[in-house]
Design goal:
6% of the residues lie in helices and 44% in strands. The protein is mainly beta. The protein has a seven-stranded antiparallel beta sheet with strand order 3-2-1-4-5-7-6. 22% of the residues are buried. It binds zinc ion.
Length: 135
């Protein structure tokens, strides 16, 4: 089955599955760039690439999905509405023990209004592409 990549914004988290349904999180989301078309999606805990606990998924988060048909194969957290939400979902930062300079673990982008995981790429926000720090 062909894989499809999709970037989504979480609108609302409905429930967290357990017991018989497997470890899942069910949410309403929109595809980035198509904010009027809400859809409901269930993501398996195993599909969460960089989120340790599905209970930390919340509204306002941005996820990159790899879909195989209707199933989510992989979901990677890109950004969240607040630093606390982003950090809670990503867990303790893995710091390079040989680190000598400050390492950017996440940053706030004024253009997209989100806390973005990781460092800017070439001075730009990897989510929206806005140039950072030159204002
Ligand atoms: Zn941005």
């Amino acid at each position: 089955m062909a894989e499809e990549a999709r970037r989504i914004a979480v609108r609302e988290v409905h429930n967290f599955g357990g017991f018989f349904g497997g470890d899942t999180v069910t949410l309403t989301a929109v595809q980035v760039g198509a904010p009027d078309e809400e859809f409901t999606l269930t993501i398996d805990q195993q599909a969460l690439a960089n989120v340790r606990d599905r209970h930390t998924i919340c509204a306002g988060m941005l996820l990159d999905l790899t879909l195989a048909g209707d199933r989510v194969d992989r979901a990677e957290l890109l950004a969240a509405a607040s630093h606390a939400e982003l950090r809670a979902a990503l867990g303790p930062a893995a710091l390079d023990p040989r680190l000598e300079a400050a390492q950017i673990l996440s940053f706030s982008c004024a253009a997209c209004g989100l806390w973005v995981a990781g460092a800017p790429r070439d001075g730009r926000c990897p989510v929206c592409g806005a140039a950072l720090g030159s204002a």
